[in-house]
Amino acid sequence: MKRQLFTVKDIIKITGITKRALHYYDKLELLKPIKADNGYRLYDQEELAKLQSILLFKEMNFSLNEISQMMSLSKAEQRDILTKHRSLLVHRKQKLETIIDQLDKYVDGTDIYHLNLFRDSPILSIKEQYESEAKLVYGDTGKYQKFEEKVSQMSVTEKERAYQQFSINMENVFRDLARHKNKSPASAEVQKLISRWKNCLEEFMVCDAEILSCIAEVYSTDSRYIHYFNQFDEDDFSRFLSQSILYFVKNKE
Predict the structure, then answer these.
(1) Tell me: the pLDDT tens digits for 60-84?
(2) DSSP at 79
(3) Based on the number of CB atoms within 10 Å of its own CB, is 215 exposed (0-12), middle (13-18) or buried (19 or more)?
(4) How far apart are CA 252 and CA 102, in angstroms?
């Protein structure tokens, strides 16, 4: 039987690959056509089968360099690599599912502090980043050192439970404050809620006038906090909260 040869046009029609890609594979010596006397590139059935394997591996997310190395291996060796590669793809799939889930939560209004995007990553979680930032800002104060000492005595489970409850308590206070935003920061109702907010903080640390004033400034100037407070009320709630805290400091501390 006469040996079947395919032109570049035939290969494009059979596989859907582009002419440019075929030339690139030729340049990489990944797929070598037969050069006819008239200069045309021709491919036999063996090269077509090789191309189909290349396209399969490429679809499996292997790089061309990895594919080049795999093409010289036996089927058994290729299976070993594919088995390991499958494990990586499963891990990547799980990571993508987490990203999609967290993206949906963020779009729906969940604050960045409560997202969990940096698992299995050298990047610290947002909560850990905030803790590191707080240590740099307040770390040399006696109040913060007492806070660290208290937290260090907790187990991992106790810390997680305490942080979750702290978050719930704070959000409840902010929601209640948002409902009183049309009142004066000096009103009894607002100041009672600020006192409640301070009590939440003091579950972890002693808050003096300096620290409370510092927090009030951060609430009104740091875009991360402003964005966070927008979930409770988008009409300059962070400024109202800051003013209410500063009034509390001036008149109660």
Answers:
(1) 989 999 999 998 899 899 999 999 9
(2) H
(3) buried
(4) 41
Considering the four listed CATH numbers 3.90.245.10, 3.90.550.10, 1.10.940.10, 1.10.1660.10, the one that applies to the domain covering 5-70 is 1.10.1660.10
CA atoms within 13 A on the CB side of 139: 8
Q: How far apart are CA 114 and CA 102, in angstroms?
A: 9
What phi, psi does 5 have (nearest 5°)?
-120, 145
CA distances from residue 167 to 94, 161, 164, 200 in whole angstroms, order as listed: 27, 10, 5, 9
Average pLDDT over every residue of 122-132: 50
Closest CA to 192 of 176, 206, 205, 204: 176
Q: Where are the beta strands (DSSP E) in the chain?
A: 5-7, 34-35, 41-44
Say whether 24 sits in a helix, a strand or coil.
helix
Task: Give pLDDT tens digits for 80-98.
Answer: 999 999 998 898 888 888 7
